[in-house]
């Protein structure tokens, strides 16, 4: 109550009770001689600036009040960032397993099989990601309440890393491209001026909105923990949607760099459509 009335983070005009409970939990487990890492994309509320990983001054005061140093709690925006910053320096790469997985010769795990068996859970994670951050690379009118109705089998699977977490667990990171069928709502005034082609499912969903769909190739970054010695036993996985800069005019693959001049998939000239338009 005192924190709320004083409007100290994480309380603000729009609320903050649930975020404050998370922060109180972090404070209870934080210790002087250990680093506690808070993994959250909500840097707008927890950090000093939206694009920063530095805790907000109000939260720094809480650490000092409990006799904890400033570095007792760190913020990472993604699991990948946490692994890069805190785990990789401690872990030795499992080169043998990595080589076998890259050649698809690791008999106890197949990413394609994992994908097919976990498709429903993957779709749920993607829907949650899209509802929070929108569709990467979509520069047209704002799409409201995007959800995933189906994810096709991957058209590209690239293993990026394999690390041994302990003698029984392996951390794997994959970049995956797959066609994703999306449903969403578009404000009618925006629909009239959209440059992207979409499929209209119901033009008169209500007085103001069109219900529509579109299939897009999305780049997905998978992080998963694999239990060694047991066939296809993934203990946990997480999906992130990296920044995307549109789609190739020829093969519809996502463009992963704003400086790309050719498609990484089909080698098409990405500048060619612009030249034609002139």
Q: How would you explain this protein's 3D organization?
A:
By secondary structure, the protein is α+β, with helices and mostly antiparallel strands. It contains 10 helices and 8 strands. About 20% of the residues are buried. The C terminus is likely disordered.
The low-confidence runs, each spanning 5 or more residues with pLDDT under 50, are: 274-278
Query: What string gives the helices and strands in order?
Result: HHEHHEHHHHEEEHEEEH
SS summary, helix count: 10
What is the 3D form? globular
Strand content: 25-35%
Helix content: 25-40%
**Head-to-tail CA distance between termini:** 61 Å
Integer-rounded radius of gyration = 22 Å
User: Biggest β-sheet: count, sense, barrel?
Assistant: 6 strands, antiparallel
Which class best fits the helix and strand makeup? alpha+beta
* Number of discrete domains: 2
If you average the pLDDT, what whole number results?
A: 83
Oligomer: single chain
How many β-strand stretches?
A: 8
Would you spell out the secondary-structure blueprint of this structure?
Blueprint: H1 2-6, H2 17-29, E1 36-39, H3 43-46, H4 57-65, E2 73-76, H5 79-87, H6 95-102, H7 111-117, H8 119-133, E3 143-151, E4 156-166, E5 169-187, H9 188-191, E6 199-202, E7 209-227, E8 234-240, H10 272-277
Parallel strand pairs: 1-2
Antiparallel strand pairs: 3-5, 4-5, 5-7, 6-7, 7-8
